[in-house]
Amino acid sequence: MNWDELYQTGVTPWEKGAPAPPLIEWLRKHGPLEGEVLVPGCGYGHDVRAIAAASPKSTVVGIDISATALKEALTYSSVGREVFQSASIFALPQSLQNRFDWVFEHTCFCAIQPDRRHDYLKMAVSALKPEGKLLAIFFLNPWDPEDEIPEGGGPPFGVTKEEIDNLFNPHFDLVDELEPKTAFPGREGREIVRLMRKKRVGVSEC
Fold first, then answer.
1. What is the rounded distance in angstroms from the CA atom of residue 6 to the CA atom of residue 13?
2. 10 found inside a domain
3. Residue 206 resides in a domain
4. Does residue 142 surpass a pLDDT of 70?
């Protein structure tokens, strides 16, 4: 999929003009993400700026492969120590490996082809320090898979809790899980937030 072409043509149904409501809900309840934070597939950077604004001492790095998206992200006023960088989640630069205290996930995992989810896992494991944390908003599919996804309903590929367990549990410990009370229109009751901590043992098996 040519993400930059989609941004250039304005075919960006995932672009809501604001940070994810479950992220704001989490930050208000649990406080800032402290340290260095990676936001893969950051798009226009709304989530990046929300994390940076709540965490003035943290460095928040948003990465995307779309030059158009990153150019737009840079048009917004800086709110903290946020940085935007061109990078692919499937070929994470060495400078971004074993560096982060947090990875924040929102719509990237459920936007890539499902057969590349193991590659996403490799990225998350390689980016995090030992016992670093992955805070993720996963998109679930409660409707019939044969039905058309409602407009604004979410990214193209949902995931089940069982699939999340099977993929992430060998490399992450589940710390917390919640069903957010807030959501973008069309996503109510279709998202789950999970906080996971990278395991010290077995991460090289990714």
1. 10
2. no
3. no
4. no
